[in-house]
Design goal:
The protein has 143 residues and is of the alpha+beta class. Helices cover 19% and strands 38% of the residues. The longest helix has 27 residues.
């Protein structure tokens, strides 16, 4: 039984770290130019991966982004809001050693339905953990 409790504690610590590390890096902030490009970096509008069947980009769709940059460790953070309250936040890496999917499913346990306003931010994190914004792209998501 003690092994089971220890294993559960380890998993809980890992989940907590995965939640807190992106937030801590985001808080460090950084300047940048909004509007899709900055120097040699570009961030596309959302590209549909899976469509829920409603017209246009909408709640429940899965999207990704096309990224072009010379940055060493580029990532894209996607934040979506309903009435100024954040309902979705996810970050994926766009570098060779990133092991997970670059897809974002536009729903969450907080965002149960409805339209939202989203902003994707392309950024680079240096070896000291400082974050520099390279490009941003804002877009609406329908209900």
């Amino acid at each position: 039984m003690t092994r089971r409790i220890a294993r559960t504690a380890q998993i809980g610590a890992l989940v907590l770290a995965l939640v807190l590390v992106p937030a801590a890096l985001a808080a460090r902030g950084g300047g940048g130019k909004p509007g899709g490009t900055s120097g040699t970096s570009t961030l596309s509008k959302p590209v549909m991966v899976t469509d829920t069947g409603t017209p246009g980009l909408s709640y429940g769709d899965t999207v990704t982004f096309n990224v072009s940059t010379s940055a060493s460790v580029p990532s894209v953070e996607l934040d979506c809001y309903q009435n100024a309250a954040i309902v979705y936040q996810a970050t994926t890496g766009y570098y060779a050693t990133y092991m997970w999917s670059n897809n974002y499913t536009l729903k969450s346990f907080v965002w149960k339905s409805g339209a939202a306003d989203c902003t994707a931010t392309l950024y680079n994190t240096n070896k000291n953990g400082a974050r520099t914004t390279l490009a941003t792209e804002s877009f609406p998501v329908g209900a």
